[in-house]
From TrEMBL:
Cofactor: Mg(2+)
Family according to the record: Belongs to the CDP-alcohol phosphatidyltransferase class-I family.
The gene coding this protein: pgsA
Source species: Nonomuraea typhae
UniProt cross-references to InterPro entries, sorted A to Z: CDP-OH_P_trans, CDP-OH_PTrfase_TM_dom, PIP_synthase_PgsA1
Descriptive protein name: Phosphatidylinositol phosphate synthase
Amino acid sequence: MLKLLRPAMTRILTPLGRALVRRGIGPDAVTAIGTLGTVVSALFFFPMGMLTAGALVITVFVLFDLLDGVVARLGGGGGTTWGAFLDSTLDRVADAAIFAGLALHFALQGEVVMVAVSVFNVFAGGLVSYAKARAESLGVECDVGLAERPERLVVGLVAACFSFVPFVLEAGMWLLAVASLITVVQRVVHVYRQTGES
């Protein structure tokens, strides 16, 4: 659903992409900076209880996920196989750090149930991505699901940003857990139907 916003965001980020290309900064460097910034911010701000600040800073670094594609296009006409692999791998690292940071926040607050929900979101997010990657490696299209990466990030970061409102963060984590589980089931069923195997 949020993929529809990608062209608009790409246009907004194009001037910054041109500036980076002129300075010799490549897409792999942009990917690495975005991931490092996300990981450090999530594991610093969230456990410290600075959820709104952390969510805002992380949002800036998450935009690097779009910016690296812009830089790749402007710098040489497109990305590379290595760049695509690096981007996908580091996306998983960044996602895990965000929800691990929230799990640490809940642990320090003594909220055991929410720690479990946050940890589940770490694993569920990885499983959602793995299901698609594995299907596509077998030649099966699998671009379906309720909660793909953009949706998971938006819900998680918005919930953290507005955590000062009672129960918003908790509701966001539960929503993500349920939506991620539904997405995994949707992808398994989709691949089963595509292959026609029993």
